[in-house]
Amino acid sequence: MKKLLFALLLLLSGSAATLYFVPATQLASLRLIEQYRAGLSHEQLSVHNLNIHYYQGGPSSGETLVLLHGFAADKDNWLRFSRHLTQDYRVIALDLPGFGDSDLPPGSYDVGTQTERLADILDAMGIQQAHVLGNSMGGQIAALFAARYPDRVRSLALFANAGIDSPHESELHRLLMSGAPNPLVVKQPQDFDKLLHFVFVEPPYLPESLKRYLGERSMAKAAHYDLVFKQLVERPVPLAPELAKIQAPTLLLWGRQDRVLDVSSIEVMQPLLSKPSVVIMDNVGHAPMLERPEESALLYRKFLEGLK
Could you tell me which PANTHER family the record lists for this protein (predicted)? Predict the structure, then answer.
């Protein structure tokens, strides 16, 4: 692995011009470096004829953390976050079915169906019990899994989870109700930059060539994301009635400036959970693990250590 990292660093430093014009190579190289720094390997397995991709790292004897990304996202969301956890924990960061490198299954992508797929994936991995963390749509899936399979969840962490009718409507909700285009689905080149500024208070730096490439890649998936979002809206699984079933200690972590899902959702959730902890991060948007990876990971680690 050290030789691999050294080769990649040489590639990035000695072939800058090539990488600028071949952003796919740039992305692949940067991803490999982030995997190395996080101590993660890229794995895959077959579950009911679906090819599921995931990152895995950390001691095999450590407690298992399962990380679930949000809508239109993938396992890469957890790379820098995981760097601060793999020394002590076994980390599994999934590409949920229909996202990232995982296969697109036929049928529905509603959170109830995805929750059962998650149970099948963990069965195939031989994981009977884990700490489960999810962001946005992944948070709703994580919470529903904890409600349906309470014996399998040692703790639950929800980073700006979906599934709650918040007392204060989010900006995303107001936009969609007005008939405006969904800012989470990239359909034109300029939409990707708009997406970054909608999700983050301070978007992570991306070279322009890489930003264009990521935007083009997102545009290629726009029809699929439209379908998934439509199913999420038309086949809702309200989370509030499920929260009392969750027995695991639960961390609610939100960015105060979240424009996608309003932080006031915590006001609904906290009284319904048996063992809640709450953290609100200032000057953070919808994806704390991307915008503030080290800080959010250390907050999560503090939560986990408090369970011992």
Answer: HYDROLASE, PUTATIVE (AFU_ORTHOLOGUE AFUA_2G14860)-RELATED (PTHR43798:SF33), MONOACYLGLYCEROL LIPASE (PTHR43798)
